[in-house]
Amino acid sequence: MAIEKKYCLNCSEVIQGRIDKKFCDDQCRNTYNNQQNALSTNYIRRVNHSLKKNRNILEEIIPAGEEMAKSTRARLLSDGFQFRYFTHLYETKKGNLYHYCYDYGYLALEGDWFLVVKGKEV
User: Fold this and answer.
1) What is the pTM of this model?
2) Backbone dihedral region of 12: left (phi > 0), alpha (psi from -120 to 50 degrees) or beta?
3) Fewest 10 Å CB contacts: which of 18, 28, 79, 117?
4) 28 phi/psi in degrees, rounded to 5
């Protein structure tokens, strides 16, 4: 009875050892799995970077020692703010909808103005 040769999923070298082995060594296993996860990992990394950048922009708008400030859409955009990325929403009893990037949020006001607020720590 002939033994069927198995080949590494990463480098296609002949595998020595156990029957159920899929990779020739740990390096090939890690490389293969990293390549499989690369697209989703890169997407998550880009989104997290955008969220952190948005939070830092909101933080810079509020003066030290203050809890809130106003800003224009033009200023936010010129600083690189991306409105499509936020971590959560908060709706007040009055129906105002705040978009938050972690602990800093903003509320759309009239005429392309935004109220930027620092959230309360829980």
Assistant:
1) 0.71
2) left
3) 18
4) -65, -40
